């Protein structure tokens, strides 16, 4: 409502959900991250609904590059990803957030997606791919062009490895083209942007709605999407026209 009160029929029942936000900033803590400013909007909405949230700033951790669950088995001396991955495994909602550099996602964001991809061949308790039925979204900040490009890359990557993407699952803020203020800079207009605040709010609620719907339903039915069953010869109605 315009006075800030909640409208009649505000949904409830999200308190059992867990969400993790990955911040792909290149700035180590405690440096100010503009991306954290946008994450905070979504996080506050979730926490008001009783959702458990966590923010992981990947640059603060010694995460190896690669596409395997534990890169220490592939020549790396150290790799903190195996200690961070349980946050993903336990989460119902995963939000990938980060800045724009040269019109694209940051190296930290790309590394995160590669490490998520490392688990895409694993299976959940039903025998489906590991990320069924987790829900994914993204938040982007920058003062150059690229919000939609970065969002397309992230959301495609997440759905490709098994995440479910609700409607309008991305939001962002961008300053004027060329050098200029960042989201949290004084006078940037970022925190006051109605467009950004609306889209971030809609994204957050759509993530909550889909995550709750899937959790209440016990996830996706385990039919037509079981890799081991396909390998064993169960093809769920598929017919090869060459053998008709």
Structural features, described:
This is Flavodoxin. It comes from Pseudarthrobacter phenanthrenivorans (Arthrobacter phenanthrenivorans). It holds the Pfam family FMN_red. One of its GO terms (molecular function) is oxidoreductase activity. The chain is an alpha/beta fold and 244 residues long. It has a single domain (18-232), classed as Rossmann fold (3-Layer(aba) Sandwich), CATH 3.40.50. Helix content is 32%, strand content 15%. It contains 6 helices and 6 strands, in the order βαβαββαβαβαα. Helix 1 packs across helix 5.
Topology record:
Layout: E1 18-23, H1 34-48, E2 52-57, H2 81-90, E3 93-101, E4 104-105, H3 107-117, E5 135-142, H4 147-160, E6 170-174, H5 194-216, H6 227-231
Parallel strand pairs: 1-2, 1-3, 3-5, 5-6
Antiparallel strand pairs: 3-4
Domain NADPH-dependent FMN reductase-like: 18-163
InterPro entries: Flavoprotein-like_sf, FMN_Rdtase-like_dom
GO molecular function: oxidoreductase activity
Describe the structure concisely:
By secondary structure, the chain is of the alpha/beta class.
CATH architecture: 3-Layer(aba) Sandwich
The total of beta strands comes to: 6
Query: What number of domains?
Result: 1
Order of helices and strands: EHEHEEHEHEHH
Q: What is the radius of gyration computed over CA atoms, rounded to a whole number of angstroms?
A: 19 Å
Net shape: globular
Please give the CATH class: Alpha Beta
Specify the biggest β-sheet: 6 strands, mixed
User: How many helices does DSSP assign?
Assistant: 6
CATH homology-level superfamily: Flavodoxin domain
Uncertain runs are none
Q: How far is the first residue's CA from the last residue's CA?
A: 60 Å
- Helix fraction, binned, reads 25-40%
Structural class: alpha/beta
Average pLDDT taken over every residue: 94
CATH fold call: Rossmann fold
Q: What is the beta-strand fraction?
A: 5-15%
GO molecular function: oxidoreductase activity
Domain NADPH-dependent FMN reductase-like: 18-163
Protein name: Flavodoxin
Organism: Pseudarthrobacter phenanthrenivorans
